[in-house]
Specification:
- Chain A is of the alpha/beta class.
- Chain A is built from nine helices and seven strands, in the order E-H-H-E-H-E-H-E-H-E-E-E-H-H-H-H.
- Chain A has one domain: Aconitase, domain 4, CATH 3.20.19.10.
- In chain A, 35% of the residues lie in helices and 17% in strands.
- Chain A has a seven-stranded mixed sheet with strand order 4-3-2-1-5-6-7.
- Chain A is globular and about 65 Å long.
- Chain B has 17 helices and 19 strands.
- In chain B, helix 3 links the parallel strand 4 and strand 5.
- Classes of the chains: A alpha/beta, B alpha/beta.
- At the A-B interface, helix 2, helix 3, helix 4, helix 6 and helix 7 of A face strand 1, helix 2, helix 3, helix 5 and strand 8 of B.
Amino acid sequence: MTQPSAITHIEGRGLPIRGHDIDTDRIMPARFLVAVSFEGLERHVFEDDRKADPSHPFNDPRYRGASILVVNANFGCGSSREHAPQGLARFGIRAIVGESFSEIFRGNAAMMGMPCFAAARESIDSLQELIEQTPGVTIAADVASGEISAGSLHFTATLPPALADAFVSGQWNPTAMLLDRFDEVRAVAARLPYISGF
Amino acid sequence: MAATLFQKVWDAHTVRVLPSGQTQLFVGLHLVHEVTTPQAFDMMRQHGWRVAFPERTFATIDHIVPTRAQQRPFLDVMAEEMATSLERNCRDAGIPLWTPEQDEQGIVHVIGPELGLTQPGMTIACGDSHTSTHGALGAIAFGIGTSQVRDVLASQCLALDPLKVRRIDVTGSLTRGVYAKDVILTIIRRLGVQGGVGFAYEYGGPTIDAMTLDERMTICNMSIEGGARVGYVNPDDTTFAYLRGRPFAPQGAAFDRAVAWWRQIASDRNAVYDERVSVDATRIEPTVTWGINPGQSVGVSEAIEGDPHDEAFAFMGFRPGARVTGTKIDVAFIGSCTNGRLSDLEEAARIVRGSRVAPHVKALVVPGSKSVSRAAEARGLDRVFMDAGFEWRGAGCSMCLGMNPDRLEGQQTCASSSNRNFKGRQGSPTGRTLLMSPAMVAAAAIAGEVVDVRTMLEEVPA
């Protein structure tokens, strides 16, 4: 596993996935969770949707090599499976821009260094249209300011402030911080009645 | 100052505010299962970290367990590898593990409360979104991803932002044939599948107060389907009576001291909430999902409404204006962490007793745990179900999700007491799931199609 490093700016081509409430069962069907590692999950991202719809954006050669997913509302709802953002990241996705996200999905993605930017519906619509018309357009996302630009399109998106700080400071993987003052953890544990036996 | 249970529990477990602004929150109970943890244990090994609080960590095997024949090794080689991997990881770390060979095994969200591991005022984490279930006992329980499982293993802590609290008051008595499942489906329908993002849901009011713990678990379980990562009910005498005598609950004088603390940790009467919502339970009728998310539901006497271009209509084979009753089913599934407890099986058995499953329906009952299974068998419920043509299976997650041999095939339609009707959820990419209460599933199994369970209850003595 790589050590965290600062994530300040992400640039790449876009891949639009239209539709609200796209759940993690669709992103990564459960049968691919029968495994003890995340390796190879990139092959199964949206597998059932892709089979059902040959024109699914993940099948579309125009979007090959894209690294920024552009989605609608409540993306990643449902199961907490990290296999969903792991599959996307291993496929090559480095950031997601969308109307809104499920909390668990957004947190999981953050832990892997993949920011999920939220923006107004009109901005997302415009960005999805732009990518569909000009798949080669480069999207640039600035983590600290939330500024997103693509061609002549510019808008501001948001990240939860703590996550934005964590990406910019390179502390998006918090384990080291959580272990930093372990005596304080032990002190909290010792104060809890259900641990001290009431 | 008056505070909610959420605030009190959050404060009691706060270690510090991290430089990022997130809170470092101590996790009082970490529940582990085979699907979302092998990678976390691998990450631990790569860093040379040890499990910080193995005595606060408990494990079971549930998702991949075959429910027909549970002997080891499992026929599915990968499932067996997941099981042995968890066994090895738990042995190395000193974490208690309940495997299918043991009496305590079951779905993680069924056995936590059942064993008395889940207690009021705790913070609980598990790599599973239905961890919200444990809130029924007045705990703050978070579903987490695998990297967070690693964090909890390594530090017994999570880095989190606090949630707002939405109080959901449910008032009025449920009418006959209407269950906790119908209440939560109605709440999700009303507030939306995204309505709870950023919130903890506190369920209360006379209807919730009158509910058993099993019913409260059904409600809290599906909080995440409404977008709320956390859902809870304040602990009360019903909670304390449920916990008394359970293996991991405090015993003797410690139990009485525990009750005093549990009372104190409940939301104060004049606590201030970020939002309040009221639901009139008397107006709720048996509810069934018709679409591809748990918010797309309808009462049995209502017509389905919605945008005809919504992909849910084409996928499910419904059109706006149609009714769910009369929909032919192929499979009936009673089980899951939502509705796989003893009272769920009892309610379903009342409908089933003396009837026969329709010839074209494959019907299965999967108890949520070995303990539920034993209790049901002691009451003869296994016979009731088998005499009617149901299959009586071993404990596990079963057909709630496609991770074990219990799966839909092709475009089968399933009346299911589980929690998710997502496309492909039950293991077939084109399978169709209709979520409903266990009693409604039982009624559908017998009729061979979705029916209003109340018409069958008329024939059953109360």
